[in-house]
Design a protein that fits this description.
Blueprint: H1 6-14, H2 16-23, H3 31-37, H4 46-62, H5 65-77, H6 80-98, H7 101-111
Helix pairs in contact: 1-2, 1-6
Length: 112
């Protein structure tokens, strides 16, 4: 079941067909595919993570902070209300699904 606004955000990011594969069909993807789809910015080895993080943080902190805050707000605010609505709808559908025989069978299988 899509949740957390993924039914809105994932198709916008990777397209309907690939989002359907991941959210409905339950397909998985490796790190390289996640990067190719735009789900992650970079694929790094464990040894390189701290250095890459330090470099990104240094670049971010060098930017005018008011402009960074405003840019972040502009990138997300135009969708905020729609995302809130979608999350509520997803929760409603999920709650309904919890009462179905399929959900009970899945939970029983998981517990056993």
């Amino acid at each position: 079941m899509p949740e957390g606004g993924s039914s809105l955000l994932l198709p916008q990011l990777i397209g309907h067909l690939k989002a359907f594969e991941l959210l409905v069909m339950g397909e998985t993807c490796d790190a390289a595919t996640a990067q190719q789809l735009g789900l992650v910015n970079a694929v790094l080895s464990a040894a390189d993570i701290e250095d890459a993080l330090a470099q990104r943080l240094k670049r971010l902190l060098a930017l005018p902070q008011a402009a960074v805050r405003q840019g972040k707000a502009m990138l997300r605010d135009h969708q905020r209300e729609r995302l809130r609505q979608i999350v509520e709808e997803e929760l409603d559908v999920f709650e309904e699904y919890l009462h179905t025989p399929e959900a009970r069978a899945a939970l029983h299988k998981f517990l056993n």
